[in-house]
Amino acid sequence: MTEEEGPGSGRIAGLLLAILPRTPAGRRLAAGAAVDSVGSGMFLAASTLYFVTVVGLPASRVGLVLSLAAVAGLLSPVPLGRLADRVGPVRVYVALLMLRGLGYAGFALIDDFWPYAVLTCVLTALDRGCSPLQQVVVGIVEGGRNQTRTMASIRSVRNIGLTGGFLLAGAVLAIQERAAFVALFLANAVTFWVIAVVVEQLRRRLPAAPAASPAPPADAAGPAASEPRPTAVRSPFRDLRFMLFTLSNGVLSLHDSVLFVLLPLWLTTATDAPSSAVSVLLAVNTVLTVLLQVYVARFAETTAAALRLIPVALVPLLVSCAAFAGAEHVPMWLAAGGAVLAVVLLTVGENLHSIAVWNLSYELSPASARSRYLATFSLGLTGQQIVGPVLMTSVLLPLGTAGWALLAAVFALAAVVVRVTGAPRATPAPAPAPSASSSSSSSGSPSEVTP
């Protein structure tokens, strides 16, 4: 390596190391997530075109199936979370990964509408059910301060992996041969089995859990204590505080619909900026997310810190609304610059918000019902994906500048409710087992409870 290559290569290596989790187990989870996201990127970029142009399914019917699949995905997380609380989150997560790999491989055999419709709905339900379980698994494997950083690392490497998958799919789309698409589907299936093997190996290395142990303190610095056996816990749907937290977080997550739904339409209809800037702005968001996720995770390693981060996240979200509104009243290049500034601010707020709520949602979930609580929490995000596009296109976009003021007010109100409802719960009455404290403090790492 030449002297000229050294500093540049060192900086790239330093950046990659900064993105990775601190622990060996966390790095294995992140590596598995990277492989998985490459396969997902390939599938997302090529699957719809394959079923329309190669298999010959009508585009309208494919669109209908995708909508029905979204409904299946909305309903699946809670029952799967309840199953995970009974059987064990890691075991259920691994089983879902294996089933998803088998299902995605099955796409290679489909040449008719109904098998496509059924398999798409089933796989979407499994996909959505896996998402909250991943957070539970990371908490079991990592715990404590490492949990937030590892979740941030996984999101960063997923963005990188998806980009790589999109690029690889480009080669398949250029070939336009059925055999190339089949190879893509099989490669995607293999990625699910790879991460399933990684997670299963980590599960086998976890120490056996004691029969019962108290939940760790909210701000514990070390690994989380082993999860207790399931006990009687009220349904999350009857937990008013948790449901308010879930709902308000879904509203605060409207920044997602702003970026992917409102931004392209707003840029082309409300400003003089060139429409080609949309792809640049989305790339800015992706790159910043990769760079920011792990960095901002250090500011939410405890529940108290995560709570302080909510009003901090609100500031760039509000200023981004002002930047979007201002870009509507200036010439083309100033409008483009204002749009870039607005997307940067929106991305910063998005990352601060997501980091904070990972910690808060985990700590608000009772240990013995964490899977179903986090599954319920995910419904707020799914609801935003359903309601957000309609709100953006039917309300905010027609209102023009006033729409940005309305969105800022909605952000502010939602952040206040998230901040209030996300505060630590009152300490429950201590269990009549004084010896339990010593067992929980001596536990070096968390483990999964099995029946």
In short:
The protein contains 16 helices and no strands.
Describe the structure.
The chain is mostly helical and 451 residues long. It contains 16 helices and no strands. Helix 2 runs parallel beside helix 7, helix 4 crosses helix 5 and helix 9 runs antiparallel to helix 15. The longest helix is centred in the last third of the chain and has 33 residues. It is globular, with a radius of gyration of 23 Å.
Measured between the Cα atoms of the first and last residue, the distance is 55 Å
Q: Secondary-structure element order, as H and E?
A: HHHHHHHHHHHHHHHH
What is the radius of gyration computed over CA atoms, rounded to a whole number of angstroms? 23 Å
The main pleated sheet reads as: none
Shape: globular
- How many helices? 16
Helix share, percent:
over 70%
Counting DSSP E segments of at least 2 residues, the number of strands comes to: 0
Mean pLDDT over the full residue set: 82
What structural class do the secondary elements suggest? mainly alpha
Low-confidence parts lasting 5 or more residues at pLDDT below 50? Answer: 209-230, 428-451
Query: In percent terms, what proportion of residues is strand?
Result: under 5%
Task: Detail the topology: elements first, then pairings.
Blueprint: H1 5-19, H2 24-54, H3 59-75, H4 77-87, H5 89-106, H6 113-141, H7 144-175, H8 178-205, H9 240-252, H10 255-270, H11 277-297, H12 303-327, H13 332-364, H14 370-399, H15 401-421, H16 436-442
Helix pairs in contact: 2-7, 2-8, 3-6, 4-5, 4-6, 4-14, 5-6, 5-8, 6-7, 6-14, 7-11, 9-13, 9-14, 9-15, 10-13, 10-14, 11-13, 12-13, 12-15, 14-15
